[in-house]
Design goal:
Radius of gyration: 19 Å
Number of strands: 12
Oligomer: single chain
Largest sheet: 10 strands, mixed
CATH architecture of one domain: Alpha-Beta Complex
Shape: globular
């Protein structure tokens, strides 16, 4: 590739017209010092998102899906279309408040051993959004399903998954970081592979980071850039369906990646446990006034946003 761009910003979007407008506007407002392109993949949104992008941002490369392709396939298509050295998988419910992309490109240039990295995420109220996860065993996941993190938020068992004691002030290797604003090196997706299309959305970040670790690639967190993340704006539109899809993805992840072991008996137990968790979480959803799909440690804050 002759004279590649520095960065391709890939934004899959479904039914988030206002947020998408703010997201793209913030990129153009704050990004300087690097060459970049924006690819927006509209997943057949009924709210006019695609028309808004075409009219307000004619320079954006717009893909109009005629049927729902969902998060993973859209990101993979964006990486295949990319003309850059790096790609940033960016959620449409984010806004930049500084020149984050230039800082992330510089970090990757200065750390050639890093395959992918993510920045510091901020809640709308300016607090840190906890986006790091550790790969954990089945006992930890059972306790997480039983809301152990709510009963004992400072427990070491809680920390084994949610990384509640993680130091967000320094750059460092991580097990898994969300793909909310996720920078991937071209050689990473060309050699290690794209996101796993057995998943539509849920667990896709965990699966990709797990695959990279298995193949010996390094994934980093860096505080050199900050991105505001409102969180779960698409999945909360149909929360009951999202909860079902989340748990189906957890089962698929375990069976495809042998996450909790290779034995058939163990996988059967995990399947039963995840199905029980699904019923528990859906019952909790019906009884709780909090109707978010994701609401454990690290979930986007419900606090009143600041004016950025």
């Amino acid at each position: 590739m002759e004279n590649p761009l520095d960065l391709t910003v890939i934004i899959p979007s479904y039914n988030t017209r206002r947020l998408l407008r703010d997201c793209i506007s913030s990129i153009y407002e704050h990004t300087e010092g690097i060459s970049y392109e924006i690819i927006c993949l509209d997943d057949h949104s009924p709210d006019g998102s695609a028309d808004m992008v075409a009219e307000a941002f004619p320079e954006v490369i717009l893909v109009r899906n005629q049927t729902n392709q969902f998060y993973v396939r859209n990101n993979n298509l964006g990486m295949r279309m990319s003309r850059a050295r790096y790609a940033c998988l960016l959620n449409s419910d984010t806004v930049l408040i500084s020149n984050a992309f230039a800082a992330l490109v510089k970090y990757m240039d200065e750390n050639p051993q890093v395959a992918a990295c993510g920045p510091k995420l901020l809640n709308p109220d300016g607090s840190v959004q906890h986006c790091i996860r550790y790969f954990s065993g089945p006992a930890t996941m059972v306790l997480q399903a039983l809301n152990w993190h709510k009963l004992f938020p400072r427990s070491r068992l809680t920390d084994r998954y949610y990384a509640t004691r993680f130091d967000y002030s320094k750059a460092q290797p991580v097990d898994s970081i969300g793909t909310t604003a996720y920078i991937v090196r071209r050689s990473t997706w060309e050699k290690a592979g794209l996101l796993d299309e057995r998943f539509r959305l849920f667990v896709s970040d965990l699966a990709y980071n797990f695959m990279l670790k298995q193949k010996g690639y390094a994934v980093h967190y860096t505080p050199c850039a900050e991105v505001v993340h409102f969180g779960s704006q698409s999945v909360n539109q149909n929360a009951q369906r999202s909860l079902r899809e989340l748990h189906a993805a957890l089962i698929e992840f375990n069976e495809a990646y042998d996450y909790f072991g290779k034995s058939r008996a163990g996988k059967l137990l995990v399947r039963l446990a995840v199905k029980a968790r699904d019923y528990f979480k859906r019952a909790e959803f019906c009884l709780s006034p909090d109707k978010r799909v994701i609401k454990g440690p690290g979930a986007p804050s419900k606090a009143r946003p600041l004016v950025w």
